[in-house]
Amino acid sequence: MAIRVLLVEDNPDHVFITERVFKTIADKYTLETTNNTESALTKLSQEFFDLVLCDYNLAGATALDVLKELKSRCINIPLVAITSAGSEKIAVALMQEGAYDYITKDVTYPSVLPVVMNRAINRYKMEKANIVLQTEINKQSQFTQTVLNSFAYPFYVLNRDYEVVLVNKAGLEKGLSIGCKCYKVLHDLDAPCLGGICPLKEVTKTKGSVIMEQVHRDKEGNEYVFEVHGDPIFDENGEIKLVIEYIIDISARKVMETELKKKLVSLEVFHKATVDREIKMIELKKTIVELKSKLEDNIK
């Protein structure tokens, strides 16, 4: 399908020059012309065009006015401005306002025009593709974050410098944030895992998953026991790039385990006492039987 171009130009001589250029590239481009901004804006509102060529100086308006009006009407289309030679300041203003490119009215115009149009259209297509790609990336990112936020426990990803690069809602509630050092937030330390086993170090050393227990301290100094799970994320060369960690608060479980151990010790003591008493009862019964037998023998 041919690329549709709208030329906004009120100089008949320049319209004629542009039409001659388009005859040489008719296999790829088609050209429509208008000599005023109102007609151009009406066409752009009602029809589809791939590109606008707009002379800077028009009757009662400029290409800057056209760009602003396109923005106000939410018409997204690449515009190439046509300026007079020596209008560099105007060209800069046009580019700042959103023009995709500009071309000067000089002897190079016929040969340069196809190049400039092709460059503008390719840039526009690339920007549209990038928008689509970024939209898809954002959707995937939102989906990933939604999945992570469904975890009831803190889930976060660390780089090799102990910095958080991804964290879920539960992690945020625990004080973690993008860019923070995990040891500072989780252990209130100024250096990584002083005097303790570090999940990131263990994962990096073993290149495998680890599960360990750690004591975390909050800002008030309260201690909590957590079961820490660490898993590696490898790069294309098989080297560890990031480490996933998620932590489960097992403080209540540890308290119950301690209480259970105490109860088991008490039960063992009670059981031993009961067994000892039973043994003594058996021995006492045996003694009674023996004494009874001796007494009967004496009576006889």
CATH superfamily of the largest domain: Response regulator
Query: Helix content range of the residues, please?
Result: 40-55%
Please tell me the total number of domains. Answer: 3
- How much of the sequence lies in strands comes to 15-25%
**pLDDT averaged residue by residue:** 89
CATH class of the largest domain: Alpha Beta
State the end-to-end CA separation.
133 Å
Brief overview, please?
The protein has 300 residues and is an alpha/beta fold. Helix content is 51%, strand content 23%.
Defining key terms:
single chain, 300 residues, alpha/beta, Rossmann fold, Beta-Lactamase, 3 domains, five-stranded parallel sheet, five-stranded antiparallel sheet, 12 strands, 51% helix, 23% strand
Notes on the protein architecture:
This protein is of the alpha/beta class and 300 residues long. The chain has three domains: 3-144, Response regulator (Rossmann fold, 3-Layer(aba) Sandwich), CATH 3.40.50.2300; 155-249, PAS domain (Beta-Lactamase, 2-Layer Sandwich), CATH 3.30.450; 251-300. 51% of the residues lie in helices and 23% in strands. It has nine helices and twelve strands. The chain has helices spanning 12-24, 37-46, 63-72, 88-97, 109-149, 169-173, 182-187, 199-206, 251-299, and strands at 3-8, 29-34, 51-55, 57-58, 61-62, 79-83, 101-104, 155-159, 164-167, 210-217, 223-234, 240-249. Strands 2-1-3-6-7 form a five-stranded parallel beta sheet, sandwiched between helices. It has a five-stranded antiparallel beta sheet with strand order 9-8-12-11-10, with helices on both faces. It starts with a strand and ends with a helix.
